[in-house]
Design a protein that fits this description.
Residues 252-320 form the GHMP kinase C-terminal domain. The protein has 338 residues and is of the alpha+beta class. The protein has 2 domains: 18-186, Ribosomal Protein S5, domain 2 (2-Layer Sandwich); 190-337, GHMP kinase, C-terminal domain (Alpha-Beta Plaits). The protein is built from 10 helices and 13 strands. It has helices at 8-13, 85-99, 123-139, 145-160, 166-170, 207-218, 223-249, 252-268, 274-286, 314-325; strands at residues 2-3, 17-29, 40-56, 66-69, 74-76, 107-113, 141-142, 176-179, 186-188, 194-200, 290-294, 301-307, 330-335. The strands form 3 sheets. Strands 2, 3, 4, 5, 6, 8 and 9 form a 7-stranded mixed sheet that branches. Strands 11-12-10-13 form a 4-stranded antiparallel sheet. A hairpin with a 4-residue loop joins strand 4 and strand 5. Helix 6 (207-218) packs across helix 7 (223-249) and helix 9 runs antiparallel to helix 10. The longest helix is centred in the last third of the chain and has 27 residues, at 223-249.
């Protein structure tokens, strides 16, 4: 951590807004298995954005006050509801560790977002990343990537329990991410002749419950159930490795097959839903090479792979229209190339 030399008196009285940004993410493959130390691939969804702005409010550094204005709540942060407990804890820690040594007082927080909440697109991690960056900017502190990750994980573990760390990484990077718990992070450019269509079911995902239910299958007293769940987790890890090879070679049809099998495996782990299944079926019938849920499942979003070898991207529009006709509330396009 690098801290600029700041006169505490001047720093405490300075004015202006200090901002931090992050973006949404999509898990291409590896959700749920990544919790159990298998690899996953995530892609940045740069068309969605999270921004946090911090402004000094003049409260004394010995007893700083914090306010927040966001979709869920507006007012004193101490009075915020339980679904903001991760933000409360994160602000308390950042204030103590970054701001208090500089003699800084309290601040007002304004959060704006185009990332839909509870859709498996990393909104909670993006809030944390943007807020960490804004408060660090306010404090005049330069944080290393690992420090941003560590602070984000504090928030994510409160929000989701045993967070894998994938969202914390993916919402902070603008390249594709290969992530495996306990292993070195790898980022890479995607240069593949295809586009992912992302579609929102309009139903809130249930990441925490889905993760708990998969864990319950793995540790079931019924040995057959536990063995099958373990095989499914292992297979998702293998499919992720195969997907990386397909991406590097630009083999879109093979990638489509992999996504379809991953969806079948996730369904066997009980984390799909009727709404997801309906959109996935519609995309396949409209000509997508493959389709699956993305994120925790039980609602949220799905992805469909469409090749770019169609003049005028007619097929892309056909699949997108089919998704909307099947009930998709919103869609996004995520090119797999620069």
């Amino acid at each position: 951590m690098s801290k600029d030399k700041i006169n505490p008196g001047k720093q405490a009285s300075r004015r202006g807004k200090y901002t931090g940004q992050a973006h949404g993410k999509i898990i291409l493959i590896g959700e749920h298995s990544v919790v159990h130390f298998k690899p996953a691939i995530a892609l940045p969804l740069m068309s969605t954005c999270m921004e946090a702005a911090v402004e000094a409010n003049g409260s004394l550094s010995s007893a700083p006050n914090f306010s927040i204005d966001c979709k869920y709540f507006s007012g004193n942060l101490a009075d915020a509801p339980g679904n903001l407990s991760n933000v409360k804890s994160l602000v308390a820690i950042l204030s103590q560790q970054l701001c208090r040594p500089q003699g800084l007082g309290g601040f007002n927080i304004d959060i704006s977002s185009s990332i839909p909440q509870e859709r498996g697109m990393g909104s909670s991690a993006a809030v944390a990343v943007a807020l960490i960056r804004a408060i660090a900017d306010y404090a005049g502190v330069v944080l290393a990537d690992q420090e941003i990750f560590d602070y984000t994980q504090i928030s994510e573990n409160i929000a989701h329990g045993n967070a894998s760390g994938l969202d914390s990484i993916a919402t902070a990077h603008d390249k594709a991410v290969w992530f495996e718990r306990g292993q070195e992070l790898k980022v890479f450019d995607c240069q593949c002749p295809g586009t992912l269509l992302v579609a929102d079911t309009g139903v809130k995902g249930g990441t925490r419950q889905a993760v708990d239910d998969v864990r319950a299958l793995l540790y079931s007293q019924e040995r057959g159930l536990a063995r099958k769940a373990a095989e499914d987790i292992d297979r998702l890890g293998q499919l992720t490795e195969e997907a990386a090879q397909a991406l590097s070679g630009g083999y879109m049809r093979k990638l489509g097959y992999i996504l379809d099998e991953a969806q079948d495996t996730l369904s066997a782990l009980t984390v799909s839903s009727p709404e997801l299944d309906r959109l996935i079926d519609a995309a396949r019938q409209a000509g997508a090479l493959g389709a699956k849920l993305t994120g925790g499942g039980r609602g949220g979003c799905m992805i469909a792979l469409v090749p770019d070898d169609d003049p005028g991207s007619t097929l892309l529009s056909v699949v997108e229209n089919a998704l909307r006709a099947a009930g998709a509330r919103r869609t996004w396009r995520l090119p797999l190339h620069g």
